[in-house]
Amino acid sequence: MIAKRIIPCLDVKDGQVVKGTNFVGLRNVGDPVELATFYSESGADELVFLDITATHEQRDTVINMVERTAENVFIPFTVGGGVRTIFDVTRLLKAGADKVSVNSAAIKNPDLIRKASDRFGAQCVVVAIDAKKTAEGKWTCVVNGGRIDTGIDAIEWAKEAERLGAGEILLTSVDTDGVKDGFDLALTKAVAGAVKIPVIASGGCGKPEHFAEVLKETGASAALAASIFHDGTFTIREVKDICSKEGVNIREA
Protein backbone atom coordinates (compact mmCIF):
# COMPACT_ATOMS: atom_id res chain seq x y z
CA MET A 1 0.00 0.00 0.00
CA ILE A 2 1.35 3.44 -0.94
CA ALA A 3 2.00 5.63 2.11
CA LYS A 4 -0.11 8.74 2.51
CA ARG A 5 1.49 12.19 2.33
CA ILE A 6 1.31 15.28 4.55
CA ILE A 7 1.81 18.53 2.62
CA PRO A 8 2.20 22.07 3.96
CA CYS A 9 0.91 24.82 1.65
CA LEU A 10 2.65 28.18 1.35
CA ASP A 11 0.73 31.11 -0.13
CA VAL A 12 3.23 33.52 -1.67
CA LYS A 13 2.70 37.22 -2.37
CA ASP A 14 5.51 39.54 -3.49
CA GLY A 15 8.10 36.94 -2.55
CA GLN A 16 6.82 36.37 1.00
CA VAL A 17 4.61 33.71 2.55
CA VAL A 18 1.36 35.31 3.76
CA LYS A 19 -1.74 34.23 5.59
CA GLY A 20 -5.15 35.69 6.09
CA THR A 21 -8.80 34.87 5.60
CA ASN A 22 -10.12 34.70 2.05
CA PHE A 23 -7.06 36.72 0.99
CA VAL A 24 -8.17 39.60 3.26
CA GLY A 25 -6.01 41.00 6.08
CA LEU A 26 -2.90 39.32 4.72
CA ARG A 27 0.21 39.43 6.87
CA ASN A 28 3.70 38.20 6.20
CA VAL A 29 4.62 34.87 7.74
CA GLY A 30 8.18 34.65 6.46
CA ASP A 31 10.58 33.86 3.67
CA PRO A 32 9.25 30.99 1.53
CA VAL A 33 12.59 29.26 1.13
CA GLU A 34 13.34 29.40 4.85
CA LEU A 35 9.90 28.02 5.68
CA ALA A 36 10.18 25.36 2.98
CA THR A 37 13.54 24.28 4.38
CA PHE A 38 12.09 24.13 7.90
CA TYR A 39 9.13 22.01 6.78
CA SER A 40 11.37 19.72 4.75
CA GLU A 41 13.61 19.14 7.77
CA SER A 42 10.52 18.64 9.96
CA GLY A 43 9.26 15.71 7.93
CA ALA A 44 6.96 17.16 5.26
CA ASP A 45 6.56 14.77 2.35
CA GLU A 46 6.02 17.48 -0.25
CA LEU A 47 5.34 21.21 -0.45
CA VAL A 48 2.91 23.34 -2.43
CA PHE A 49 3.59 27.00 -3.26
CA LEU A 50 0.69 29.09 -4.53
CA ASP A 51 1.41 32.51 -6.03
CA ILE A 52 -1.75 34.28 -4.89
CA THR A 53 -0.99 37.51 -6.72
CA ALA A 54 -0.70 35.49 -9.91
CA THR A 55 0.48 38.35 -12.10
CA HIS A 56 3.02 38.34 -14.86
CA GLU A 57 4.84 41.18 -13.10
CA GLN A 58 5.56 38.88 -10.16
CA ARG A 59 6.60 35.87 -12.22
CA ASP A 60 10.31 36.71 -12.00
CA THR A 61 9.97 36.85 -8.21
CA VAL A 62 8.41 33.40 -8.22
CA ILE A 63 11.08 32.00 -10.56
CA ASN A 64 13.76 33.23 -8.18
CA MET A 65 11.94 31.59 -5.26
CA VAL A 66 11.70 28.29 -7.15
CA GLU A 67 15.41 28.35 -7.96
CA ARG A 68 16.33 29.04 -4.33
CA THR A 69 13.97 26.33 -3.10
CA ALA A 70 15.40 23.77 -5.50
CA GLU A 71 18.88 24.53 -4.15
CA ASN A 72 17.87 24.13 -0.50
CA VAL A 73 14.97 21.67 -0.31
CA PHE A 74 15.20 18.02 -1.21
CA ILE A 75 11.58 16.94 -1.23
CA PRO A 76 9.19 17.35 -4.18
CA PHE A 77 7.44 20.69 -4.49
CA THR A 78 4.61 22.01 -6.62
CA VAL A 79 4.16 25.60 -7.79
CA GLY A 80 0.85 27.09 -8.91
CA GLY A 81 -0.94 30.39 -9.38
CA GLY A 82 -0.98 32.43 -12.56
CA VAL A 83 0.10 29.52 -14.74
CA ARG A 84 -1.62 30.27 -18.04
CA THR A 85 0.55 28.90 -20.83
CA ILE A 86 2.94 26.09 -21.66
CA PHE A 87 5.68 28.73 -21.44
CA ASP A 88 4.79 29.34 -17.77
CA VAL A 89 4.92 25.60 -17.10
CA THR A 90 8.28 25.32 -18.85
CA ARG A 91 9.85 28.19 -16.91
CA LEU A 92 8.78 26.82 -13.53
CA LEU A 93 9.97 23.28 -14.23
CA LYS A 94 13.28 24.52 -15.63
CA ALA A 95 13.73 26.65 -12.49
CA GLY A 96 13.48 23.49 -10.38
CA ALA A 97 9.83 22.83 -9.54
CA ASP A 98 8.92 19.15 -9.57
CA LYS A 99 5.29 19.78 -10.51
CA VAL A 100 3.20 22.69 -11.77
CA SER A 101 -0.39 23.28 -10.74
CA VAL A 102 -2.96 24.71 -13.16
CA ASN A 103 -6.48 25.78 -12.28
CA SER A 104 -8.42 28.57 -14.04
CA ALA A 105 -6.29 28.40 -17.19
CA ALA A 106 -6.98 24.68 -17.55
CA ILE A 107 -10.72 25.28 -17.35
CA LYS A 108 -10.49 27.99 -20.01
CA ASN A 109 -8.08 25.95 -22.15
CA PRO A 110 -8.16 22.22 -21.28
CA ASP A 111 -5.59 21.54 -24.00
CA LEU A 112 -3.00 23.10 -21.70
CA ILE A 113 -3.17 19.93 -19.60
CA ARG A 114 -2.54 17.71 -22.61
CA LYS A 115 0.32 19.85 -23.91
CA ALA A 116 2.07 19.95 -20.53
CA SER A 117 1.58 16.23 -19.97
CA ASP A 118 2.83 15.31 -23.44
CA ARG A 119 5.91 17.50 -23.10
CA PHE A 120 6.90 16.87 -19.47
CA GLY A 121 4.99 13.78 -18.36
CA ALA A 122 1.82 13.41 -16.33
CA GLN A 123 3.79 13.29 -13.08
CA CYS A 124 4.59 17.01 -13.52
CA VAL A 125 1.00 18.15 -14.05
CA VAL A 126 -1.30 18.91 -11.12
CA VAL A 127 -4.81 20.14 -11.83
CA ALA A 128 -6.20 22.22 -8.96
CA ILE A 129 -9.95 22.11 -8.52
CA ASP A 130 -11.80 24.53 -6.24
CA ALA A 131 -15.24 23.04 -5.68
CA LYS A 132 -18.43 24.39 -4.14
CA LYS A 133 -21.47 22.33 -3.14
CA THR A 134 -24.63 23.10 -5.12
CA ALA A 135 -26.83 20.19 -4.04
CA GLU A 136 -26.52 16.90 -2.20
CA GLY A 137 -23.75 14.98 -3.93
CA LYS A 138 -23.16 17.78 -6.44
CA TRP A 139 -20.29 20.27 -6.66
CA THR A 140 -19.26 22.78 -9.30
CA CYS A 141 -15.86 24.28 -10.10
CA VAL A 142 -15.35 27.88 -9.02
CA VAL A 143 -12.59 30.32 -9.98
CA ASN A 144 -11.32 33.74 -8.87
CA GLY A 145 -11.07 32.80 -5.20
CA GLY A 146 -14.47 31.17 -5.24
CA ARG A 147 -16.28 34.24 -6.55
CA ILE A 148 -17.18 32.89 -10.00
CA ASP A 149 -19.10 29.65 -10.40
CA THR A 150 -18.26 28.09 -13.77
CA GLY A 151 -21.19 25.67 -13.60
CA ILE A 152 -18.79 22.83 -14.49
CA ASP A 153 -19.40 19.65 -12.52
CA ALA A 154 -16.32 19.10 -10.33
CA ILE A 155 -16.37 15.31 -10.53
CA GLU A 156 -16.73 15.29 -14.31
CA TRP A 157 -13.96 17.88 -14.60
CA ALA A 158 -11.64 15.72 -12.48
CA LYS A 159 -12.30 12.78 -14.80
CA GLU A 160 -11.67 14.95 -17.86
CA ALA A 161 -8.44 16.31 -16.36
CA GLU A 162 -7.24 12.75 -15.83
CA ARG A 163 -8.16 11.83 -19.41
CA LEU A 164 -6.21 14.83 -20.73
CA GLY A 165 -3.08 13.76 -18.87
CA ALA A 166 -3.12 15.21 -15.35
CA GLY A 167 -1.03 13.20 -12.91
CA GLU A 168 -2.67 14.49 -9.76
CA ILE A 169 -5.67 16.48 -8.49
CA LEU A 170 -5.37 19.17 -5.82
CA LEU A 171 -8.93 19.37 -4.52
CA THR A 172 -10.03 22.29 -2.34
CA SER A 173 -13.48 22.59 -0.82
CA VAL A 174 -14.58 26.21 -0.89
CA ASP A 175 -17.25 25.40 1.69
CA THR A 176 -14.83 24.12 4.34
CA ASP A 177 -11.76 26.22 3.51
CA GLY A 178 -10.67 28.23 6.54
CA VAL A 179 -13.43 26.82 8.75
CA LYS A 180 -11.08 24.38 10.52
CA ASP A 181 -13.88 21.88 11.22
CA GLY A 182 -12.37 19.23 8.97
CA PHE A 183 -11.97 18.38 5.31
CA ASP A 184 -15.02 17.91 3.07
CA LEU A 185 -15.21 14.13 3.26
CA ALA A 186 -18.11 13.71 0.84
CA LEU A 187 -16.47 15.80 -1.88
CA THR A 188 -13.07 14.19 -1.45
CA LYS A 189 -14.51 10.69 -1.48
CA ALA A 190 -16.56 11.43 -4.60
CA VAL A 191 -13.60 12.79 -6.57
CA ALA A 192 -11.09 10.20 -5.34
CA GLY A 193 -13.55 7.47 -6.27
CA ALA A 194 -14.03 8.87 -9.78
CA VAL A 195 -10.36 8.96 -10.84
CA LYS A 196 -7.35 6.66 -10.68
CA ILE A 197 -4.74 9.40 -10.18
CA PRO A 198 -3.82 10.66 -6.69
CA VAL A 199 -6.06 13.25 -5.03
CA ILE A 200 -4.76 15.78 -2.49
CA ALA A 201 -7.44 16.89 -0.02
CA SER A 202 -7.41 20.57 0.90
CA GLY A 203 -9.58 22.97 2.86
CA GLY A 204 -10.84 22.82 6.42
CA CYS A 205 -8.10 21.22 8.48
CA GLY A 206 -7.99 22.40 12.08
CA LYS A 207 -6.29 19.57 13.96
CA PRO A 208 -4.23 16.40 13.30
CA GLU A 209 -7.27 14.15 13.62
CA HIS A 210 -8.71 15.78 10.52
CA PHE A 211 -5.75 14.48 8.50
CA ALA A 212 -6.31 10.95 9.79
CA GLU A 213 -10.03 11.18 9.07
CA VAL A 214 -9.75 12.28 5.45
CA LEU A 215 -6.91 9.88 4.65
CA LYS A 216 -8.76 6.90 6.16
CA GLU A 217 -12.24 7.56 4.87
CA THR A 218 -12.01 9.05 1.38
CA GLY A 219 -9.31 7.42 -0.72
CA ALA A 220 -7.26 10.63 -0.80
CA SER A 221 -3.54 10.02 -1.31
CA ALA A 222 -2.45 13.14 0.57
CA ALA A 223 -3.78 16.00 2.66
CA LEU A 224 -2.71 19.63 2.65
CA ALA A 225 -2.93 22.42 5.21
CA ALA A 226 -1.44 25.85 5.89
CA SER A 227 -2.54 27.65 9.04
CA ILE A 228 -2.05 24.86 11.58
CA PHE A 229 1.57 24.56 10.47
CA HIS A 230 2.35 28.27 9.97
CA ASP A 231 0.84 29.16 13.35
CA GLY A 232 2.87 26.44 15.06
CA THR A 233 -0.36 24.96 16.44
CA PHE A 234 0.76 21.48 15.45
CA THR A 235 3.96 20.08 14.01
CA ILE A 236 4.22 17.71 11.09
CA ARG A 237 5.60 15.13 13.50
CA GLU A 238 2.49 15.41 15.69
CA VAL A 239 0.23 15.06 12.67
CA LYS A 240 2.07 11.96 11.48
CA ASP A 241 2.07 10.39 14.94
CA ILE A 242 -1.70 10.78 15.27
CA CYS A 243 -2.28 9.47 11.74
CA SER A 244 -0.19 6.41 12.55
CA LYS A 245 -2.11 5.81 15.78
CA GLU A 246 -5.34 6.03 13.78
CA GLY A 247 -4.12 3.30 11.45
CA VAL A 248 -3.12 5.44 8.48
CA ASN A 249 -0.16 4.13 6.50
CA ILE A 250 1.85 7.34 6.70
CA ARG A 251 5.36 8.18 5.56
CA GLU A 252 7.81 8.49 8.40
CA ALA A 253 8.99 11.99 9.27
UniProtKB/TrEMBL annotation:
What chemistry does it catalyse, as a reaction equation? 5-[(5-phospho-1-deoxy-D-ribulos-1-ylimino)methylamino]-1-(5-phospho-beta-D-ribosyl)imidazole-4-carboxamide + L-glutamine = D-erythro-1-(imidazol-4-yl)glycerol 3-phosphate + 5-amino-1-(5-phospho-beta-D-ribosyl)imidazole-4-carboxamide + L-glutamate + H(+)
Name the keywords, alphabetized. Amino-acid biosynthesis, Cytoplasm, Histidine biosynthesis, Lyase
**One GO term of the biological process aspect:** L-histidine biosynthetic process
Q: Does the keyword Transcription apply?
A: no
EC class (word)? lyase
Its GO CC terms are: cytoplasm
Q: What is its EC number?
A: 4.3.2.10
Pathway the protein contributes to: Amino-acid biosynthesis; L-histidine biosynthesis; L-histidine from 5-phospho-alpha-D-ribose 1-diphosphate: step 5/9
- The active-site annotation reads D11, D130
Could you tell me which InterPro entries the record lists for this protein?
A: Aldolase_TIM (IPR013785), His_biosynth (IPR006062), HisF (IPR004651), IGPS_HisA/HisF (IPR050064), RibuloseP-bd_barrel (IPR011060)
List the molecular function annotations (GO) for this entry. Answer: imidazoleglycerol-phosphate synthase activity; lyase activity
What's the chief localization of this chain? cytoplasm
Q: Where in the cell is it found?
A: Cytoplasm
Superkingdom assignment: Bacteria
Q: How does it assemble?
A: Heterodimer of HisH and HisF.
According to its UniProt entry, the function of this protein is described as:
IGPS catalyzes the conversion of PRFAR and glutamine to IGP, AICAR and glutamate. The HisF subunit catalyzes the cyclization activity that produces IGP and AICAR from PRFAR using the ammonia provided by the HisH subunit.
Q: Which family does it belong to?
A: Belongs to the HisA/HisF family.
* Name of the protein this chain belongs to: Imidazole glycerol phosphate synthase subunit HisF
Q: Tell me what organism the protein belongs to.
A: Heyndrickxia coagulans (Weizmannia coagulans)
Q: Gene of origin?
A: hisF
